[in-house]
Amino acid sequence: MHQEALLELFEELVVRSQSLTRVYRMPAPYPDEEGYDEKMCQSWAVEAEAALAAVFPETHPVRLAWSRILATPSGRDICFVAGKLTATFAAARNLIRDDRLASLVDMIRVESESELLDQAQVLVEANHHAAAAVIAGGALESHLRHYVDKHGITFTGAGSISTYNSAVGKARKANPAFYSANDGKLVEAWGGFRNEAAHDPGNFARTKDDVKRMIEGVREFIGRTS
């Protein structure tokens, strides 16, 4: 979902949160809590939590704050903590509205690519060279797709490591700031490794050191060009 659509969804839920009906104020020991209409709160909270989960990882402060509210004694009944939940959701809306979502998405993407490379490292150490090359190539392809999208680089045909790399090479003629031609040669070589491993894994002849250098090179390349 694009940021505009996300913002529209979050704005709608914030508006709905403002129409939740306050029913009563909680007695001691929770004198600062307000009770809200239970059915309205339940409906809103389910949709709000789903929206948060679709955008923010579990370890993000917004999700952690939401979970802490529900974990309090009064959080057993959503209608008693609706005020705090709506405030937390409004903070999440602000992150999207203030265009801070892009950095969050980038962080999640880089973390995901790093995890793939970690898996490839485990596989190559266990002498599963072809599988390791395929997974490392997948991390590289994901990064390249993001790279061309981020910089508005157009390409034709089906997306692949070679397609994206070729598109960057053409765009580099007009903008030398894109990653270098030497990087492009490395990317093409890594793509060759990936294709060999994916298309004929039984005859994949690259050595353990070859694949380890690929993994290390892809990791360094992603770090430099993210």
How would you concisely characterize the structure shown here?
The protein is mostly helical and 226 residues long.
Describe this structure as you would to a colleague.
It is a single chain. This protein has 226 residues and is mostly helical. The protein has two domains: 3-97, no CATH class; 103-225, Four Helix Bundle (Hemerythrin (Met), subunit A), CATH 1.20.120.330. The chain has helices at residues 3-17, 38-55, 61-71, 78-97, 101-125, 129-150, 161-172, 181-199, 208-225; strands spanning 22-25, 34-36. A two-stranded antiparallel ribbon has the order 1-2. Helix 1 (3-17) runs antiparallel to helix 2 (38-55), helix 1 runs antiparallel to helix 4 and helix 6 (129-150) packs parallel to helix 7. The chain is elongated.
Write the layout of secondary structure elements.
Layout: H1 3-17, E1 22-25, E2 34-36, H2 38-55, H3 61-71, H4 78-97, H5 101-125, H6 129-150, H7 161-172, H8 181-199, H9 208-225
Antiparallel strand pairs: 1-2
Helix pairs in contact: 1-2, 1-4, 2-4, 3-4, 5-6, 5-9, 6-7, 6-8, 6-9, 7-8, 8-9
